[in-house]
C-alpha cells in the first residue's frame, strides 16, 4: 500500500484544475517540458546490467529564462562505479555553467523530475520510483529544501514531494560554512 501521505496523480486526470503541480509554482509548460526531457533522457539510459532505465530533468531559472537539463543513469561493469540519472543531470548543469552554486550569476533549480519504467498500480500499491538516498543528498547540495521533486511512472502518473519531505533534517553546505546555491 502507498504511504497514506503520498498522493498519486493519475495522467488520466491531468486536466484537473488547478493541476496539482501548480501548488508547487509550476506551469503546464514547466511540467510538460520536465516530463518530456526526463523521458527522452530515460531512452538514452546506459543500463545493460540492471536494465532499469532512469531519466531525470531539472528546471532551472536564470533571470527570466528557464532551461531544462537532463540526465540518465550510466552503469559500469564495476557496478558501484555506475551513476544515477539525477546525479548525471546535476553534473551536466554544473559542467555547462548553468548551475553555479554559491555564485550570484548561476541559475536556480525550480523543480526536479525523475522517471522510470515502473508502472503505478493502485490495486497493488505500486508507487513511482523515488530518488535513492545518495541522490537525495546530492540534490540537497544544489536546491532549496522546498524544491518539488516529481516522480513519474512510465505512463505519466506521478507523485510530487518537496525535497525536505524526502530528506528531513538534512546536512548541507551551510553546515560547513559554505553558502551553497543561490536560493
Ligand atoms: N538509479 C537511478 O538512476 N536513480 C535512482 O535514484 C535510483 C537508481 C539507477 C542506478 C542503476 O543504474 C539502476 O537505477 C538500478 O539501480
From the structure above, extract its key features:
cytidine deaminase activity, 5-stranded mixed β-sheet, Cytidine_deaminase-like, alpha+beta, EC 3.5.4.5, about 180 residues, about 20% helix, Cytidine Deaminase, domain 2, binds tetrahydrodeoxyuridine
Task: Kindly describe this structure.
With 183 residues, this protein is α+β, with helices and mostly antiparallel strands. The protein has a single domain (24-168), classed as Cytidine Deaminase, domain 2. It contains four helices and five strands. The protein has helices at 28-43, 85-95, 133-142, 163-166, and strands at residues 54-62, 65-72, 108-116, 148-152, 158-162. It has a five-stranded mixed sheet. The longest helix has 16 residues, at 28-43. Residues 47, 50, 52, 54, 73, 75, 82, 84-86, 131-132, 135 line the site of tetrahydrodeoxyuridine.
The share of residues in helices is: 10-25%
CA radius of gyration: 16 Å
Q: Please tally the helical runs, counting DSSP H or I stretches of 4 or more residues.
A: 4
**First CA to last CA: what distance?**
35 Å
Low-confidence stretches: none
Q: Please give the order of strands in the largest beta sheet.
A: 2-1-3-4-5
What structural class do helix, strand and pairing data support? alpha+beta
Highest-level CATH class: Alpha Beta
Q: Considering the protein shown, what is the CATH homologous superfamily?
A: Cytidine Deaminase, domain 2
- Which small-molecule ligands are present, each listed once? tetrahydrodeoxyuridine
Amino acid at each position: 500500500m502507498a504511504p497514506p501521505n503520498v498522493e498519486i496523480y493519475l495522467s488520466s486526470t491531468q486536466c484537473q484544475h488547478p493541476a496539482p503541480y501548480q501548488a508547487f509554482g509550476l506551469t503546464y509548460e514547466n511540467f510538460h517540458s520536465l516530463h518530456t526531457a526526463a523521458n527522452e533522457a530515460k531512452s538514452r539510459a546506459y543500463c545493460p546490467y540492471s536494465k532499469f532505465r532512469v531519466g531525470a530533468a531539472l528546471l532551472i531559472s536564470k533571470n527570466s529564462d528557464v532551461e531544462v537539463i537532463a540526465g540518465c543513469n550510466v552503469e559500469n561493469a564495476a557496478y558501484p562505479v555506475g551513476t544515477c540519472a539525477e546525479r548525471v543531470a546535476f553534473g551536466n548543469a554544473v559542467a555547462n555553467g548553468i548551475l553555479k552554486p554559491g555564485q550570484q550569476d548561476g541559475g536556480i533549480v525550480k523543480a526536479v523530475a525523475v522517471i522510470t519504467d515502473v508502472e503505478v498500480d493502485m490495486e497493488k500499491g505500486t508507487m513511482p520510483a523515488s530518488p535513492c538516498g545518495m541522490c537525495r543528498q546530492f540534490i540537497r547540495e544544489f536546491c532549496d529544501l522546498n524544491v518539488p521533486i516529481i516522480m513519474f511512472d512510465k505512463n505519466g502518473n506521478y507523485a510530487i514531494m518537496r525535497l525536505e519531505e524526502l530528506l528531513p533534517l538534512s546536512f548541507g553546505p551551510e553546515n560547513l560554512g559554505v553558502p551553497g546555491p543561490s536560493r
